[in-house]
Write a structure and sequence with these properties.
alpha+beta; binds zinc ion
């Protein structure tokens, strides 16, 4: 795995203007990301940098979409099938569309008002007149910001598994396979404890010595003050709250997740209580997460550090991908079955309680299937 260099996230102040810049490395070159760049006057609070929140990770549901979700709940629908409707079944394009767009879009929709998702991914494979079905074990997605990475990891491992299976047992390459159908079994879970996205969860897993905070923070007051302040250009935040606040942003271009200052009351980070503003998939406030060690929390991994899995010797340049890899037990946990369905290439599955998801909300053809 190649070592990709770390993006830079910086604030620059000159002539009374403060500019936030995101500089990712693309093909070994540091470029200026126009999507993330924001300029405010130097005396404005940091929150003004983040007044617009377009990032592709958050959704706004219309009334019809909320009603659709209610129907899914009411009819206890948990199975979703995506079909490639095009006559030319180009498997590679289908998998790219599904992995990059269709599946994350559906999961974000189902994440609305849920606290986490339990997802089983199934792939239908046609190869040499056989029909095979591959399925993962149920995978818990604890935060909506983990959706893209998890789907990407599952798709990569799944294609590897299918391709090594067809090569070793049927003696054909992956190119001989046609995949035009995917199945997702999704259980929406509620009431679980609010989690951080995996990228930040792995950092706080390590026990760190908490900084001693002299004065405890009035959390209900902090929450109420934040709700009154947020989204207003001239909002007031009580002086009695000597706290520093951070929020998450996702680059719409590179999909990188990063934490940035939202309100900085003191430069003395060791003695100032610090919180991260947590939101849900719709961008609604979901609570404050106390950051015990802000330097550690904000620090990205060093550029040149490569992590090696002790079990399988795979290399990773990102702690996030390494954590996902360990989470699925080096990929061993991914594939639990490959079933020969029938040999004439036709589907024999019949669903009674089935409806299609409206095309105006979903760019792709999805069928929702409830219990019969
Ligand atoms: Zn960016
Ligand atoms: Zn491993």
């Amino acid at each position: 795995m190649s070592r990709h260099r770390q993006s830079r996230f910086i604030f620059e102040t000159s002539e009374n203007v403060r500019t936030f810049r995101h500089q990712p490395f693309i093909s070994e070159l540091s470029v200026e990301c126009q999507s993330c760049q924001s300029r405010v006057r130097a005396n404005e609070p940091y929150s003004h940098h983040w007044m617009s929140s377009e990032d592709g990770q958050h959704i706004k549901l219309s009334l019809e979409e909320k009603l659709l979700l209610k129907r899914i709940e009411r009819e206890r629908v948990d199975t979703f099938i995506m079909c490639d409707e095009s006559a030319v079944g180009r498997t590679r394009d289908f998998l790219l569309d599904a992995g990059m767009e269709a599946v994350p879009q559906l999961l974000r929709f189902l994440n609305y008002e849920a606290s986490q998702l339990e997802v089983t991914f199934g792939f239908y494979v046609n190869v040499t007149k056989k029909r095979l079905y591959y399925e993962t074990f149920p995978i818990i997605i604890k935060h909506f910001l983990d959706i893209d990475e998890t789907v990407d990891m599952v798709f990569t491992r799944m294609v590897e598994k299918i391709s090594s299976y067809v090569l070793s047992t049927l003696r054909v390459p992956m190119e001989a396979c046609t995949i035009k159908r995917l199945k997702l079994i999704v259980h929406r879970q509620f009431n679980s404890h609010l989690q951080l996205p995996l990228q930040y969860r792995v950092k706080s897993d390590v026990r760190v010595k908490a900084t001693k905070i002299a004065k405890p923070v009035d959390l209900p007051l902090l929450t109420e003050s934040y709700i009154n302040y947020h989204g207003k250009r001239f909002g007031h935040f009580p002086d009695s709250l000597q706290v520093n606040l951070y929020c998450f942003r996702v680059c719409p271009r590179t999909k990188e997740l990063y934490a940035v200052p939202y309100l900085i009351r003191s430069e003395d980070v060791n003695n100032t209580p610090t919180f991260l503003i947590q939101t849900d998939v719709a961008g609604e406030f979901r609570g404050m997460h106390e950051i015990r060690n802000v330097r550690r929390f904000l620090r990205s991994d060093p550029n040149d550090r490569v992590l090696v899995c002790r079990q399988c010797k795979a290399h990773f340049s990102s702690r996030l991908h390494f954590a996902l890899h360990k989470y699925v037990d080096c990929g061993r946990g991914i594939v639990v079955m490959s079933l020969d369905m029938d040999t004439d290439g036709e589907s024999t599955e019949v669903y009674e309680n089935c409806f299609s998801l409206p095309k105006q909300f979903f760019k792709f053809a999805w069928f929702a299937i409830g219990p019969n």
